[in-house]
Design a protein that fits this description.
Length: about 425
């Protein structure tokens, strides 16, 4: 029974691995530390409106045996090019942001006397070597174990912290100022909550890779179970980190550190406040493992999806062979590592500013990708019985409109206002 349950999980847990990193460990914790539980509604609302876009990534792959990139190509080259532009942001801004957080944790835990740039370079190169040598099967197995282990630690820590809280004396919320700075922080949190919408395409690509690994197509039922289970877990964990940031930082008047290493120290300190010093090394290594898993997930997803985009744009009549896709994947992994390190060298001035940049601009392309996914599920290649109807379709339309409003707000407050 357990074996059957485990086999039904795969791309969904890769999604969870990516989400737990930047959006949960960093942005949910920062939201709690800065404003307490004030932004709980934002975490829940944004996760809800993005759900159809992620669900469609899994549904489309299971229903057609293809990826969303194939659907975008049918909708027009503009769709493929627009997604490629959005993907480049994840590849060259999101990846270095995650690497920076990982670097801070590693430097703090192991007392490594190395600059942020040097540590990021080591992590990116090591991650690239792991992916190139191990590919999907090893990567998926590692991610499953790391996400499950740290999720258990997080839930237990949040429950213990809540049980010890003196509600009568505690301060659990603060009014947020709806000025330019306050609204940009809201958008930064929402941008990757529970993850960037570009990852919906990763779902379809990972689902395709899982089918190749299993030697058979993933059934629509298993695909739905996979993403639904992972999505519920990510929302719950986001609330746990928001709560821990509120109880263990905001309630104690602790300000979020401005540097990657300083923030890493605060992150580990939250858990040791709950479990005690004996758990320091366990929590530290677990945190490194999870944020590394998040980095690896994005480091794998961007070139894997990029390889599909390149072969699609070639306008070839024959589909690319697995060997061709693998060679292109390796090439794009290397390009991504070089580009990510260049971004750190050229634009890293403030840890918090770089993280907010990486998470905010994810919203610009979100409504377009959600719209393309909506159209994909109504296409003729999707069997009629597997097309979304009723509530899910209306939910999708509401999400697209809401995401468009967030994107307009970001552009207004960051560029115009």
């Amino acid at each position: 029974m357990f074996q059957a349950f485990r086999e039904r999980l795969g791309p969904g847990l890769l999604f969870a691995a990516m989400a737990v990193g930047l959006s949960h460990l960093v942005q949910s914790t920062r939201a709690g530390a800065n404003y307490g539980m004030t932004l709980w509604w934002l975490v829940l609302f944004v996760s809800i409106i993005k759900y159809p876009a992620f669900r469609y990534g899994s549904m489309y792959a299971a229903a057609t045996g293809q990826t969303l990139i194939d659907s975008y190509e049918r909708q027009g080259r503009y769709a493929v090019m627009a997604y490629a532009l959005a993907l480049s942001v994840d590849a060259f801004v999101g990846v270095p942001a995650m690497a920076l957080v990982t670097a801070g944790l590693c430097k703090f835990v192991f007392s490594i006397a190395l600059g942020d740039q040097g540590m990021v370079a080591l992590l990116l190169c090591g991650g690239a070597l792991l992916l190139i040598s191990g590919q999907y099967r090893l990567f998926e197995s590692v991610a499953k174990v790391l996400v499950v282990a740290f999720s258990i630690f997080t839930v237990i820590a949040a429950a213990i912290a809540l049980s010890r809280l003196d509600f009568a004396a505690a301060t659990l919320s603060a009014p947020i100022t709806y000025d330019r700075a306050g609204l940009l922080f809201i958008i930064a949190v929402a941008g990757v909550m529970p993850s960037s919408v570009t990852a919906s395409v990763f779902q379809s690509v990972w689902m395709s890779a899982k089918s190749e690994t299993l030697g058979r197509p993933v059934t629509p039922r298993d695909a739905a179970f996979d993403i639904n289970f992972a999505y519920i877990v990510t929302i719950f964990l986001a609330m746990c980190f928001l709560g821990m940031g509120t109880i263990l930082m905001f309630n104690q008047g602790i300000e979020v550190a401005s540097g990657a290493t300083g923030f890493a120290a605060q992150l580990v300190a939250m858990f040791t406040q709950v479990f005690g010093n004996w758990a320091n090394i366990i929590i530290s290594i677990s945190a490194i493992a999870v944020i590394s898993s998040s980095m690896l997930t994005l480091l794998d997803g961007c070139p894997r999806t990029g390889a599909r985009i390149v072969t699609t744009l070639r306008n070839r009549t024959a589909a690319a062979t697995p060997t061709e896709l693998n060679r292109l994947y390796i090439f794009l992994v290397v390009i991504q590592v070089i580009g990510s390190f260049a971004m750190i060298l050229l634009f890293l001035k403030s840890f918090k500013a770089f993280i907010d940049l990486a998470t905010s601009i994810a919203f610009i392309a979100a409504p377009l990708i959600a719209y393309l996914n909506h159209r994909a599920m109504a296409a003729k290649e999707v069997p009629v019985e597997q097309r979304p109807t009723g509530l899910l379709r209306m939910w999708s339309v509401f999400g697209i409109v809401s995401l468009a409003m967030f994107a307009i707000a970001y552009i207004w407050f960051s560029v115009i206002a």
